Amino acid sequence: MQTVAEVRQRCQSLPGSQETFPFDAHTLVMKVGGKMYALLALNSDPLSLSLKCDPERAEALRAAFEQITPGYHLSKRHWNTLRLDGTLPAELVTELLVHSHALVVASLTRAQRAALNGRQAADVTTL
Predict the structure, then answer these.
(1) 72 φ, ψ to 5°?
(2) Considering Cα of 30, then 31, then 37, then 39, what sign does the dihedral take?
(3) Radius of gyration of the chain (CA)
(4) Cβ(111)–Cβ(121) below 8 Å
(5) Class of CATH domain 4-119
(6) How large is the angle between the packed helices 90-107 and 4-12, nearest 10 degrees?
């Protein structure tokens, strides 16, 4: 994944994903349940994608890949910024995007998670 279209397509395939522009016209923010899981700097060259990440894993990724740095203007503990210059394995970028989405979904209420799974909030008591 190294184009805006590829990132948007992958994000749109995740349950409950919403595209927003809460900061400016150049920062695409993907949310689930009203919470951010990805930020894409549309005017950066190469593209810059910030993703939520497990703190220990975030540090390991930064040590392993020079294209992965602490989150730009975000919590350095919980966010990484990926430089999408074509050198990171596409599978890794996809896996980190899905991981970010999953972390945010896990932080939602049971009712919100149930709604993402297509269940009514009343069904949550049976989960």
Answers:
(1) -75, 120
(2) positive
(3) 15
(4) yes
(5) alpha beta
(6) 40
What digits encode the pLDDT tens for the residues 107-126?
999 999 988 887 544 444 44
Report d(CA 65, CA 26) in Å as an integer.
Answer: 26
Please state, in angstroms and rounded to a whole number, the distance separating the CA atoms of residues 121 and 84. Answer: 38
Q: Is the Cβ–Cβ distance between 88 and 80 less than 8 Å? A: no
Give the C-alpha separation, 11 to 57, whole Å. 21
**Contacts (Cβ under 8 Å, ≥6 apart) of 81:** 48, 49, 50, 68, 69, 70, 71, 72, 74
| pTM of the model as a whole | 0.86
pLDDT band at 73 (very low <50, low <70, confident <90, very high): confident
Start-end of H helices in the chain: 4-12, 55-64, 90-107, 110-116
- Name the residue ranges covered by the structural domains of the chain: 4-119
Give the torsion sign (CA, 96, 99, 104, 105): positive
Q: Which of 99, 25, 19 is nearest to 60 (CA)?
A: 99
Question: What b-and-e string marks burial along 65-91, b requiring 16 or more CB atoms within 10 Å of the CB?
Answer: bebbbbbeebebebbbbbbbeeebeee
